[in-house]
Amino acid sequence: MRYGVLGTGMVGQALARRLRELGHEVAMGAREASNEKARAFAAETGGQAMDFAGAAAFGEVIIHATSGAHALEALNQAGAENLAGKVLIDISNALDFSQKPPVLSVVNTDSLGETIQRAFPQARVVKTLCTVNAKVMVDPGRLPGEHVVFLSGNDNGAKKDVRDLLTSFGWTAIIDLGGIEGARAQEMMMPMWLRLWGHLGTPDFNWMLTRRAD
Amino acid sequence: MRYGVLGTGMVGQALARRLRELGHEVAMGAREASNEKARAFAAETGGQAMDFAGAAAFGEVIIHATSGAHALEALNQAGAENLAGKVLIDISNALDFSQKPPVLSVVNTDSLGETIQRAFPQARVVKTLCTVNAKVMVDPGRLPGEHVVFLSGNDNGAKKDVRDLLTSFGWTAIIDLGGIEGARAQEMMMPMWLRLWGHLGTPDFNWMLTRRAD
To answer: What digits encode the pLDDT tens for the residues A84-135?
Structure first.
């Protein structure tokens, strides 16, 4: 499969490199194709470095991994025509770290996932992976136990594709929360995640569920 | 210990009855002391039925278990003078179910816990238990595994008292998230909790944490 990964930060790097390990063709997209982090990815993995539009045109599946604050800007540069009909995996969290504690810029009555789906109605948006650290995203086996990841999206076929991708990363407990409006629930986990990072002293954790047996 | 439990719904009933089981003196507070549910509690358990002010005056520790939408109204009726200097345990979630999916009426840059602490600066507010179902609150042993509950509050002595109370209910994994502003993180778990209720088909569940061992 060909993937376009938009974003060169920790999340984009982790995903693009993992996809290369799994044998996929990967273009990492940045504002400029000359972006040093994208070029380092390409040189080290045999992937490609492109601008956002190039990576979006290249990918059969697109992963949005820029910071949530710049989501629409990056996706507009990627181009609606390069996203139409494709699975668009949104992993972003819109955190404003200028406030303490950090706050979400979209929340409660809306979400980034929904915002992106509205802005690109022909893309098949699936929100996932935004509730865990980059290392855990691509290697869930690094944590013991059957810990969980979530899917939210309006297109069941797209969610099936994303479920298969997550399974190839090693995920076993993948919970389908329903339509894209469930992105609110995923994104609103972030304040607790940040506090637990402080409490545990590591971002290398995740949630498991327990329920009554009878 | 003498407890004043404000609220006659599922959460208030579960807590007041559990406190009676543990041998505490309990007054259940309602808008009117003649409230049928409060009187049923009193008749069945040997506790007392009072109005909000009476229950707040009676309790050495106060538990706020009304619906979040009426929190300040109920606490104003309870009276600042009856809350001053006391541990005030806030369990409420301010959900507006007229919207689908339900939304929070206070969120992100504020929380109900903080709102209550600001309105009653002499109360020692601790936010806890709002992330689980009423049955789980008072009987965590009904679920397998070491599942978690959170504390947020500015007063360490108050948090110590609440930790002891939770321990007496059977809680073993009690996570102190810091000051009362951490109530935001707890309250923002509610949208995910509601979706998981739908997904699992039961509210009888909770979160556990897994982390990397090294």
So the answer is: 999 999 999 988 888 888 999 999 999 999 999 999 999 999 999 999 999 9
State the pTM of this model: 0.97
Residues A60 and A17: their CA atoms lie apart, in Å, by: 17
Neighbour tally for B49: CB within 10 Å = 23
ipTM, two decimals, is 0.96
**A107–chain B Cβ distance below 8 A for any pair:** yes
Task: For residue A119, give the DSSP letter.
Answer: H
B103 touches chain A (CB under 8 A): yes
- The DSSP call for residue A106 is S
* Nearest CA-CA partner of A81 in A67, A65, A64, A62: A62
What SS3 class is residue B120? Answer: coil
Query: CB of A172 within 8 Å of any CB in chain B?
Result: no
Give dist(CA B29, CA B2) in Å, integer. 13
Q: Tell me which DSSP letter residue A8 carries.
A: -
* Most distant CA pair in chain A, distance: 58
pLDDT of B101 > 90? The answer is no
Amino acid, res. A96: D
User: In this complex, do A99 and B109 lie within 8 Å of one another by their Cβ atoms?
Assistant: yes
CA distance B80 to B112: 17
Asked if B98 has any chain A CB less than 8 Å from its own CB, the reply is no
* Digit-coded pLDDT (tens) for A42-86: 999 999 999 999 999 999 999 999 998 889 999 999 999 999 999
In chain B, what is the greatest distance between 2 CA atoms, to the nearest angstrom? 58
3-state class of A125 per DSSP?
strand
DSSP A87: E
Distance from CA of A186 to the nearest CA of B (A): 7
CB contact under 8 A, B185 and A194: yes
| pLDDT tens, position by position, B65-80 | 999 888 999 999 999 9
Q: Which homologous superfamily is A2-200 in?
A: NAD(P)-binding Rossmann-like Domain (3.40.50.720)
Structural domain boundaries in chain A: 2-200
**Mean pLDDT estimate for chain B:** 97
Q: Which of B143, B188, B195 sits opposite A212 (nearest CB)?
A: B143
Q: What is the Cα–Cα distance from B191 to B150, expressed in whole angstroms?
A: 17
